Amino acid sequence: MSVSTVSPVIIDGQSLSLESVARVAFDRAEVVLDKEAARRIEAARQVVDTAASGEAAVYGVNTGFGTLAEVRIAKDDLARLQKNLIHSHAAGVGNPLSPPEARALMLLRANVLAKGHSGIRLSTVRLVIDALNRGLVPVVPERGSVGASGDLAPLAHLALALIGDGEFFLDGERLPARVALERVGLTPCVLEAKEGLALVNGTQAICAVGSLACLRAEKLCRLADLAGAMTLEGLLGSHRPFTDKLHTARPHPGQSAAARHLRELLRHSELVETHRHCKKVQDPYSLRCMPQVHGASRDGVAFARRALDIEINSATDNPLVFADTAEMISGGNFHGQPVSLALDVLAMSATQLASISERRVEQLVNPALSGLPAFLAPDSGLNSGFMIAQVTAAALVVESRILCHPACVDSIPSSAGREDHVSMGMTAALKARQVMDFVRTVLAIELLVAAQALDFQHPKGKAGEGVEKAFERIRAEVPFMAEDRELHRDIRALETMIDHGDFDDL
Q1: Distance (Å) of CA 87 to CA 138, 157, 352
Q2: What stretch of H or E contains 288?
Q3: Is there a cis peptide before residue 479, judged by omega within 30 degrees of 0?
Q4: Which of 127, 173, 223, 354 is the most exposed place for a label (fewest CB within 10 A)?
């Protein structure tokens, strides 16, 4: 079992960042529970223990769940009630969440419990954290949540593993939970009153998948600027549409940021000087309107981040425990609508990046538009060049557009009508995740094709500084295509460079 050398992430239920989620998800940073958070957890637990020993009906403590909330449960059956809840709700299907997503899920659940409104025992919270720190990754099927009482099925699979009845991955091996826990020196927990409910209520599966997708989207926004700048130089396009005063006159934050980034990438271009007095008046929208389109995507992604920043530090259980007044209040903080809507916006924002990118690829490969050899093949006719690369990009754009159908408006009643409006937040998260994969590939194709165009333009001079750096990195991995070869290998090479962050500093 590998040990992380990354600085620890301290969770207190209120200050977790998306970047810290990524550190735990990908770098396996150690997770440490804040001391004050531990005190809050214990204080809230005292309220639950008092309620469990009393005679008043308290939802989730001594009653059934959902439509069965009016059914009283005998004191001797309270522990069994919680175990039954986990077993019955572990009805997820489909592929397991990826290891980074599953680690993010554990972290986010622990962070919510750290707020001290869940009424769970401190020992149970510590088990979640210890399992995460010792390399256990719960097997959590990705489908089965409608985002109503939160992510009931996915979170139940996490809880199932914690009580020793589910499964964990450990160093890539899929194991029965009891075996995995024993291997790392941990003991399954035996749930007490309200603990099962505290573990399954919430939006942490939505947020685990959504947070990692949002971080990818932020990088894709900058990558789209880079790909667009390369295409602009490859087509000898104008830099004037990125002039600062244009965007000051329409000060959307994303538009201004995109224009500023494009100016940085294109700084000290020699190519722009070669056509400063050409007869062309305006470039096509896919070039000229990059700040406006990319900028709107940036603003959409920023909206999604704001929602996620709030949600990952919010109490999403039901009922919530307030130790200061010894109250347990039943409500609907588990409803996933705020993040469902945000993740639909995230998918739409990223898809626009792919949509305009594919149009730029068409500008590059179409000789009637580019003035370059057909499909950028040195001997077109004998060679097809990048003809089908554009077709692949088009296919991915269309599928991304289909995935942009909003999940958040597609409610379906559940739980015998008690949960009569649901968010479909997990569906929104899964769609957003898939869109990020497609957008990454479309931008990889544009980078690949734009690099080929720059090869044809380089005899005239060098491109902007940022563009030249990207070009050199691409050519270190993928050579100029002098004759046809298997393009899927080149596309995959660019995808790998993107995934490894080779362009993140540009």
Answers
A1: 15, 8, 42
A2: helix 285-288
A3: no
A4: 173
Superfamily of domain 9-202: Fumarase/aspartase (N-terminal domain) (1.10.275.10)
Active-site positions read: 59
- Using CA atoms, how far apart are residues 223 and 261, in angstroms rounded to an integer? 10
Of the chain, the percentage scoring pLDDT greater than 70 comes to 97
**DSSP string spanning 298-337?**
HHHHHHHHHHHHHHTTS---SSEEETTTTEEE---TT--H
pTM for the model stands at 0.95
**Neighbour tally for 253: CB within 10 Å:** 11
Q: Residue 280's pLDDT band (boundaries 50, 70, 90)?
A: confident
CA 339 distance to own-chain centroid: 12
> Do residues 440 and 495 touch, judged by C-beta distance below 8 A?
yes
CATH superfamily, region 210-499: Fumarase/aspartase (Central domain) (1.20.200.10)
The torsion angles phi and psi of 142, rounded to 5 degrees, stand at -85, -10
CB-based contacts of 330-334 (< 8 A; 24+ apart in sequence): 330/59, 330/60, 334/148, 334/149, 334/150, 334/201, 334/202, 334/203
CA separation for the pair 278, 298 (Å, rounded): 32
What is the mean predicted confidence (pLDDT) over 213-227? 98
Q: What is the pLDDT of residues 377-397, one digit of tens each?
A: 999 899 999 999 999 999 999
